[in-house]
Amino acid sequence: KVKIPFGNKYLDAVFSVPEKKSTYGVILTHGAGGDMNFPHLVSLAACLASHGVLCLRFTCKGLNIAYRAKAFRAVVEYLKLSDDYKLSGVFLAGRSMGSRAAASVIRQLSQEDDDDFVQGLVCLSYPLHRPKLQSKLRDEDLLFIRCPVLFVSGSADEMCEKQLLEGVASRMKAPTKIHWIGKANHGMAVKGRTTDDIMEEINTQVFSWLSENIELEHK
């Protein structure tokens, strides 16, 4: 457990550390409700660490997207300057509102011509629009991103209509991949499937995508 300085306060965070020294890391955060101990995030962090990828997950309460992005950025800086973990790069990952905050940070960094410490973005249940408000898409940050992006969404997500996300992905400059969890809602629940089963599917997708992108980086 660590406390990460953020303005005049601290963010609670937890490292999941692999047995061998990790060259790449994932920074992971939660959605509008909940915190870093949301079961899907705990499961993903454990899975990544067991496969040799360092994972730092943090809690930032607050429903203002700019505030959440600022907090995410503080965590990126903290890990970048860390003497304990000298990483070559990180992937930013978030669930729901957390993935919007991550996208916002990547857009900011790309506009500042920052170095390539941030390697990619993982969006779990990206909230592309409010329920029943498909006319207003939250795609502004996504269209500016150039690093690889993975979306893992439920095909019945009431905040991310399948055709709309596919349309946004086709307009993005970044290399994108979408993995649909069949019949899952925004909370990734599917009738007739256990939470563990769904988490395993998500974790497998995220890890295999990370592996591909880390390998491409080295070729």
TrEMBL record:
This is TEX30 protein. Residues 26-206 form the KANL3/Tex30 alpha/beta hydrolase-like domain.
